[in-house]
Design goal:
heterodimer, A: 169 residues, alpha+beta, 3-methyladenine DNA Glycosylase II, Chain A, domain 3, six-stranded antiparallel beta sheet, 6 strands, elongated, B: 401 residues, alpha/beta, Aspartate Aminotransferase, domain 2, Aspartate Aminotransferase, domain 1, seven-stranded mixed beta sheet, four-stranded antiparallel beta sheet
């Protein structure tokens, strides 16, 4: 059975050595999952330290629309007087393996922004603030929760995305 | 034991590789059930109880056959099964049909789903019925002595869940039934979370009403059942009347039929009821004790695993023997919705988040404003599903808190 990206990543070398020509192991894995690269590109697999057969991956399932879009969820499922906004950003042309490179993001910010947490292994960034929470996913989706109104949601979105754009795949 | 691998092949939804841990909200539907419903639309698409042509007779037989299978699932007679849309409609039928009046008492519990709670508050508002809510302890356990005090001579009904949809606790319904009957009160059991997972025998339980939904037991949405003990049917007014419910109609009178059809006005959800009957057969063929044993084995694994995840707060009993396969929890300061989204995005794990239609329980017992994340297991879940959930939670805990 094909495993999720995260399940595969758990057992991956995770050295981010760059010998395969990718910025990080997660990028290498994404390109493997999208059928762009074989695992033999990785020196650890070539050296027989990892078994190719233990890794199987289907291309990431598109979640929601793949076109750039914005949708408002009113009311926010838990807070009736607030709204949630989901934004899908346009993946770079030709990219099959995501939008934000969370490894690079983690290296840049490394807990430097209060309330910002980045999980390279899960491909998620989350910013917790008093104005609501924002989550970004490596495939280019951004979710703004519990914003008080649309303009507040936009403000949070621009603030968050400006940070994440530091490391577009 | 269950052959989970072969069972999983029956569920087309699982073929996309997702991990479905939200069967408490709604279960997946297997091919035999889907096929049975399609067969109706393709081969004998006619109304029931009306036409005398062959297709109409086949449809009627299939519909009544489904009623018999649903009855067999809970050891009732087919005449005791009222086909409704879902558990909520079944409970509403009892609430409105019982003829509650000012001063009558209804006893319910803090564990209830809104469907078995707000109907009683509405009865208080509409007719002045008195509603007594039995509280639980922090883990969701109810004290029988509280029922002893709550049920008095004016109590018409005790409405209690068979399994909490948040904490997984199973109230001592058999003892509650005995206590209520001793004081002349009837008992309505919300079986939405118990009937799909374990052998429920209404005769052994002794309850007067049992409501449950098809969509939580591998059936389609839009079909559910209400068991009404045979000798009570004359005393409960239908929620709706109309076509199919009458024996005779004149210009200034009408007389309702006997039996379940007096409650089933208009053309019912025929395909869905046939599907629910097929789901009952599917579950019985696998064996309810086998399903219960499979749930119990996964429950043990989930409980042990969740307690090892750093910063995770698990609600409800920690002893796997005292709960069903329903697990509500929170992780650090992560909002339940954000955690559910993270599990979906990172590991393809589908879980429910929020209040699970049980606000009074969250407010008064769990003291949580934002709700919880809820994972739940069923016959198609595997140990591997549980491992992915646990490892994704550990990874979130490690990297995102």
């Amino acid at each position: 059975m094909a495993k999720s990206l995260y399940e595969n990543y758990k057992n991956f070398p995770k050295t981010d050595c760059g010998y395969c020509g990718n910025t990080s192991c997660i990028t290498m894995l994404r390109r493997f999952c999208s059928g762009e690269l074989p695992l033999s590109e990785c020196i650890y697999f070539r050296a027989g330290l990892y078994n190719v057969n233990e890794f199987s991956c289907s291309p990431p399932v598109p979640r929601g629309t793949q076109k750039p879009s914005i949708s408002y969820i009113r009311p926010c499922p838990t807070d009736a007087d607030r709204i949630s906004v989901e934004v899908s950003l346009l993946p770079p042309e030709g990219s099959k393996y995501g939008y934000f490179d969370m490894i690079t993001l983690d290296n840049i910010f490394n807990h430097a922004v209060p309330g910002l947490r980045i999980s390279p292994s899960l491909g998620i960034a989350r910013l917790e603030s008093e104005w609501g929470d924002v989550m970004g996913f490596s495939e280019g989706r951004v979710l703004i929760r519990r914003a008080s109104n649309e303009s507040s949601a936009f403000w949070q979105l621009s603030r968050f995305v400006r940070s994440l754009w530091a490391a577009v795949s | 034991m269950l052959d989970t691998e072969s069972i999983r092949k029956d569920f087309p939804f699982l073929r996309q590789g997702c991990i479905y841990l939200d069967s408490t909200a709604t279960s997946l539907t297997p091919e035999p059930v889907l096929n049975k419903m399609l067969e109706y639309y393709r081969e004998y698409r006619a109304n029931i109880e009306r036409g005398i042509y062959k297709a109409a007779q086949i449809a009627t037989d299939a519909f009544e056959g489904a009623r018999a299978e649903i009855a067999r699932l809970i050891n009732a007679k087919p005449e005791e099964i009222i086909l409704v849309r879902n558990t909520s409609e079944g409970i509403n039928l009892v609430a409105s049909g019982q003829g509650l009046k000012k001063g009558d008492r209804v006893v319910t519990t803090i564990l209830e789903h809104h469907s078995n709670f707000i109907v009683w508050l509405r009865a208080r508002k509409r007719v002045g019925a008195e509603v007594k809510v039995v509280m639980s302890d922090g883990e969701g356990f109810l004290d029988l002595s509280d029922f002893e005090r709550a049920i008095n001579g004016r109590t018409r009904l005790v409405a209690v869940t068979h399994t909490s949809n948040v904490l997984g606790v199973r109230p001592p319904v058999k003892e509650i039934v005995k206590m209520a009957h001793d004081k002349g009160a009837l008992v309505l059991v919300d079986g939405a979370q118990s009937v799909p997972h374990t052998k429920v025998d209404v005769k052994a339980l002794g309850c007067d009403f049992l409501a449950f939904s098809g969509h939580k037991m591998c059936g389609p949405t839009g079909a559910g059942a209400l068991y009404i003990r045979e000798d009570l049917q004359e005393k409960i007014e239908p929620l709706c009347i109309g076509g199919g419910t009458i024996e005779d109609v004149g210009i200034d009178h009408y007389r309702l039929r006997q039996g379940p059809s007096r409650y089933e006005a208009g053309t019912p959800a025929i395909a869905e009821v046939i599907g629910m009957g097929a789901a009952a057969s599917y579950l019985m063929e696998i064996g309810m004790p086998n399903i219960a044993a499979h749930d119990a084995s996964l429950t043990k694994k989930v409980l042990e695993g969740l307690q090892e995840v750093p910063s995770l707060t698990l609600y409800g009993p920690k002893d796997p023997r005292k709960r069903a396969g329903i697990f509500s929890f929170n992780l650090g300061r992560f909002h339940p919705h954000d955690l559910a989204v993270a599990l979906d995005a990172a590991a393809g794990v589908m879980v429910r988040s929020g209040h699970h239609c049980a606000l009074p329980l969250h407010k008064h017992i769990l003291k949580l404003d934002s709700g919880t994340v809820r994972a739940s297991v069923y016959l198609y879940n595997t140990e591997q599903d549980v491992e992915v959930l646990l490892s994704a939670l550990s990874e979130i805990s490690k990297t995102m808190l």
